[in-house]
Amino acid sequence: MNIKHGKVVIAGGGLAGISAAVYLSEKGYEVELFESTPKLGGRTFSYIDKFSNRIYDNGKHILAGWYKDTLDLLELLNTKDKLFKNRNLFLRFYDNNKDIHELDGRGFSGKAGLIKALLKYKKLNFNDIYSISKVIYACNFRTKKFITAANLKEILESTNQTANSLEYFWKPFSVSIFNTSTENVSTKLFARVIDDALYEKGNLDLLVPTESLHNIFIDSAHRYFLKKGIKLSLSRRIVSVNTSGNKVTHLEDSYGNKIEGDAYILALPFWKAGEFENIFNLNGKKLQSSTIITIHIFTLDKEIINELFIDEQPMVGFLDTTIDWAFKESNNHFSIVISGADNIKSPISGKVLTDCPKEEIFGLCISDLIKSLRDFSFPLIDKYKVIKEKRATFIPDTGSDELRPGNKSKYDNLFFAGDWTDTGYPSTIESAVKSGKTCSKLINETRI
Ligand SMILES: Cc1cc2nc3c(=O)[nH]c(=O)nc-3n(C[C@H](O)[C@H](O)[C@H](O)COP(=O)(O)OP(=O)(O)OC[C@H]3O[C@@H](n4cnc5c(N)ncnc54)[C@H](O)[C@@H]3O)c2cc1C
Asked: What is the Å distance from ligand 1's center to 333 Cα?
């Protein structure tokens, strides 16, 4: 360890806290990270079942070529090679006529790649593609040609999108990237994502983890912390931030310990802001959350895996169904993802999916697979697990902008990290990692 600067105390060990710790350590700071739970990773973690020797994620996390800061972090953590890369957009979908449709932009990048992919996508005709391209070309973040609509739904209405483009392009686009429906997506965030995704070669790549989140982010972070001498205190909840004048003097944990440093980063999740009202000043308002449901299926029947994942593609989508995506986890394990589950009613009980029993959600999954796959017969299930992450992401609606604090606070030595800080990105890994990196830069610039 080569300490050149002061000591930075970080509260929160999700990806934002990990990113801040790594980048500060790279710059020669002494770092101590406090995490309230017994594990690192926050919303990015894996269950490890020692009894059956199985490891499975709380939900598949997809990265994209435009996740530049995340890819840089993975380089430092030495796990960048653990991602399956589809060069320029490539996605395969099943519909409920058991037909396969491909969005295939391979060979081209940026807007040309997207248009090529749309032309190949049999669900859309020329008019559908024309209506989509009107939005893509008008929504340019970097040149600030904003469309004067409040949200994505208004953009789509004002550009007369066709029924097919709404159902087979914008709906899957909105739930996969923003985990919510189009009326909840602010124009600003939408324009930023479109612009970044189409900005330069490689940005449209989809990157699918080939190992567990534990291996890619958490275990590697532990190893990095150990090597660089970053002090990690697990099961230590920060309960107060104490200030004097324009400085933070210390944090306090739930055991009453006083924790002192030269600078402090709060890398807490959005739903914790209310506990530090004096610091975040959100006037009692809070960001709303959105659920992601993941169903892990362990099967003895390899045929289902072979039918789902053709040509080694580890990810397939579904159209006209409740389920959104399936991911190949191993030769006897796949997972199914349902995004924005708070807005979906179960066709079986009519209840909102988030409130449905796990057996019903599993039944829905199987019934959607039967609808979508040609040779599907009820697979021999060894085990299944349904994981409901009710606070997976915040809803990025127009009102969310004013509830996202910047990375610099009103105190000289206090900084905010977290996917919900004002990074310009939706609730994603990239937003979390970027926020941590930005805090490290700000601290370095203030020469703490
Ligand atoms: C199922 C699921 C699927 C997802 N899919 C994707 C995807 O495909 N692509 C993508 O980019 N993003 C995805 N996300 C979102 C992504 O996981 C989050 O945006 C990101 O992990 C947020 O990181 P964070 O560090 O900002 O917050 P968190 O991960 O919430 O970390 C905050 C940490 O602070 C700790 N903490 C809270 N209070 C205290 C306290 N008082 N003292 C100390 N510590 C405290 C918490 O325990 C937690 O560890 C998904 C999320 C889920 C749940």
From this structure: 24
